[in-house]
Amino acid sequence: MSDTAEIFEFGQFRVDVLRRSVEREGQPVALSGKAFEILVVLLERRGEVVDKDALMRQVWPDTAVEENNITVAISALRKALGESPVSPKWIVTIPGRGYSFVGEVRCGPQTAETGIPIAPTAAPPPPRSPRSAYLFIAGALLVAFSAYGLIVWLTPNLFAKRLRSVAILPFYVLNQDSRNDYLGLGLTDAVITRLGNTQLVVRPLATVSRFAERDPIQSGRDLGVDAVVEGSVQTADNRIRVSVRLLRVRDGKPLWAETFDVASDNAFALEDSIAERIASNLSGTLTAQQQSALNKRPTANASAYANYLRGEYYANKYTEDGFRKALDYLQSAIDDDPAYALAYSGLADAYYDTSNLVFPPNEAMPRAKAAAQRAVELDPTLAAAHVSLGVIASKYDWNWDIAEREFQLALAIDPNLANAHLWFGLYRAQLGDFNRAISELRRAQELDPLSSKINCYLGMVLYWARRYDDSINQLRQANTFDPAFVPNYVGLCWALNAKGDTKSALYACKQAFEHQVNPWTTLALARAQALAGDHGAAAATMASLAQSKQFVSGYDRAAVYVALGRTDDAFAALEEAYQSRAEWVAYLKVDPQMDTLRRDPRYTTLLKRLGL
Fold first, then answer.
1. Which of 81, 129, 128 is nearest to 241 (CA)?
2. Edge to edge, what strands does the sheet with 21-24 contain?
3. β-strand pairing of 227-236 with 239-248
4. Torsions phi, psi of 118, nearest 5?
5. 307 CB contacts (<8 Å, ≥6 apart)?
6. Furthest-apart CA pair in the chain: how many Å?
7. How far apart are CA 183 and CA 387, in angstroms?
8. Of 72, 76, 423, 473, whose CB count within 10 A is highest?
9. DSSP string, 10-58
């Protein structure tokens, strides 16, 4: 928001911008010049997160200052307003970002009577009641869509002609608690999903969620986009306040900003008109199919939508507890609205992600398949659901024709869906078509440059293609993007062992094990120990899984047996993996871990049974 008000009033305070004065109940309040200027900036952009760099540019233009200058000025300002950072009434510190003015403000031009002749901005009502827990979520979605509609309305063809890619940074919830902790990411995901129906390249939630508390312009540069959107959310009773800014990454210029106070009721009816406005203003860049998709409501049930957002929030945590909660919430969304295609698609992905971690594949994957099929029945244009069906066909059913068809359908619906290129590329790798596989992974990387999964899998595809040096370089680079992403270390261990560097490989697998202890990292470590010549340690590491309650893949055990030279045990473990349909069996044709078995007739027989 960029008000041109000359007078601001909040609580007992009155700020006169032209006279550079602050009064409390008619009595002057002593305030330094810079603290006053910071106060004015925060008031003009009330409800927004004002980052520290922006404050320095506006309050200290053309002057080199340290961040401590802001800290000192904010401290003086809080003291003058009679508040502390521990229990702020007006100025909230946003960790790692900046500050936000969150109180009720009245503003307007100075009049002859020195009054303020305009209506106050909507004040946050008392804390919301539990019965409105999901109504304000719908309002949040409405406001975000309205923001984007106005972006396009105020700057015709802005996206179509000048901005080709955008990142929606996670919305920050100013008054976050356990009842609305999912709201920021949920709102972000909703906006990403809706804009994904345009020809814009929109970074996925899994990637942008890592940039929640970083400078937006630098985040945009790191994400390789033309523009970024940042926003904050404040909730109370049945109302919600959302502040949104669109920033051009090239020069940091704000292209648009606005703050909205919206009642959460009647949100779904308004959502239709907002979607139509977006479609009409982008008509030069949208196909008829995309316009139709924009105008669709994912659900008309507020409770279902709230549970869907909660499910996606917990699924993105990628923990066993998170997945279990996600499955419960997504199923609740479906119970609330049995025709909710997006919830079925989310449930399919959650079940796939739980296979090999929470449930055995032959328990989780049929559920994933049923959910994805239902999603496509309800909405054949849902690209993500077609991707899920392609993944299930290639990873579990080993039905290569159906996998090809579903991936092609997904890419026809949304050519800019990075996940579709990722999984299609992995499917082509399973078949040994490495040129196409690498091409698809490179395209996925262009669409989502900082995706941990895409960068890691590109390294693994290079490994399966026997391009070991390229694989090692790619996986090391991927590690710089996300040092906590465990598959990077396992893939690096594989590639280093293939090069004969058993010492470095063992170190990489130890790092994976230290980051996350599960059957996959445990068996990867055992294999590295075996290849390093320590067969006793490898056997002991394998034995540690004897009492594991998690699914232990026969394929990963087979890889250890190969390293130990126990061929018969390896084939027995591969048969077990085949029967349980363990995920990595689908890579049997190309996996270097199994190279010493390839001349055995049992290996050829197994490939034929897989249709490879």
1. 128
2. 27-28, 21-24, 13-16, 7-10, 106-108
3. antiparallel
4. -125, 160
5. 134, 329, 330, 332, 333, 336, 343
6. 97
7. 26
8. 423
9. ETTEEEETTTTEEEETTEE----HHHHHHHHHHHHTTTS-EEHHHHHHH
Question: Which residues face 172 on adjacent strands?
Answer: 232
* In the block, residue with structure tokens 């033309």: 226
User: What is the rounded CA–CA span in Å between residue 344 and residue 308?
Assistant: 10
Query: Rounded to an integer, what distance in angstroms lies between the CA atom of residue 122 and that of residue 237?
Result: 13
**The pLDDT of residue 68:** 67
Kind and range of the H or E element at 531?
helix 519-531
Secondary structure of 570-587 as H, E, C letters: HHHHHHHHHHHCCHHHHH
Specify the DSSP class assigned to residue 432. T
- 3-state class (DSSP) for residue 65: coil
Instruction: Please state the rounded mean pLDDT for residues 305-309.
Output: 83
Q: Residue 103 has what DSSP assignment?
A: S
Closest CA to 451 of 228, 208, 219, 221: 208
- Rounded Cα–Cα distance for residues 184 and 235 (Å): 11
Length of the chain measured in residues: 612
Q: Which residue in 270, 273, 262, 286 sits closest to 195, CA to CA? A: 286
Torsion 28-31-32-35 (CA) sign? negative
pLDDT digits (tens, 9 = 90+) for 157-210: 444 345 677 788 887 777 666 555 566 676 677 677 766 666 677 788 777 877
8 Å CB contact between 315 and 326:
yes
Rounded to the nearest 10°, the torsion over CA 403, 408, 413, 416 is 100
Compute the distance between CA of residue 539 and CA of residue 604 in angstroms, rounded to an integer: 28
SS3 250: coil
Answer whether 207's CB lies under 8 Å from 223's CB: yes
Q: Cα(321)–Cα(583) distance, rounded to whole angstroms?
A: 21
Interatomic CA distance for residues 129 and 146, integer angstroms: 25
Domains of the chain: 7-108 (1.10.10.10), 130-297 (3.40.50.10610), 467-612 (1.25.40.10)
Query: Is the backbone of residue 287 left (phi > 0), alpha (psi -120 to 50) or beta?
Result: beta
350 pLDDT more than 80: yes
SS3 (DSSP) at 104: coil
B/e letters for 550-581, b = 16+ CB within 10 Å, e = fewer, are bbbbbbbbbbbbbbbebeeebbebbebbbebb
- Its pTM stands at 0.67
Query: Do residues 293 and 196 make contact, with C-beta atoms less than 8 angstroms apart?
Result: no
Query: Residue 8: which H helix or E strand, with range?
Result: strand 7-10
Backbone phi, psi, residue 16, to 5°? -105, 110
Q: How far apart are CA 45 and CA 400, in angstroms?
A: 55
Distance CA 422, CA 606 (A): 26
Contacts of 592 (CB under 8 A, 6+ apart): 463, 464, 466, 494, 498
pLDDT at residue 156 in the model: 41
By C-alpha distance, which of 537, 576, 540, 533 is closest to 557? 576
Find where tokens 């340290």 sit: 66
The answer for 278, left when phi > 0, alpha when psi is -120 to 50, beta otherwise, is alpha
Residue 64 confidence (pLDDT): 63
Locate 68 and state its tokens: 């401590």
SS3 143: helix
List alpha helices for 355-433, DSSP H: 361-378, 383-392, 400-413, 418-430
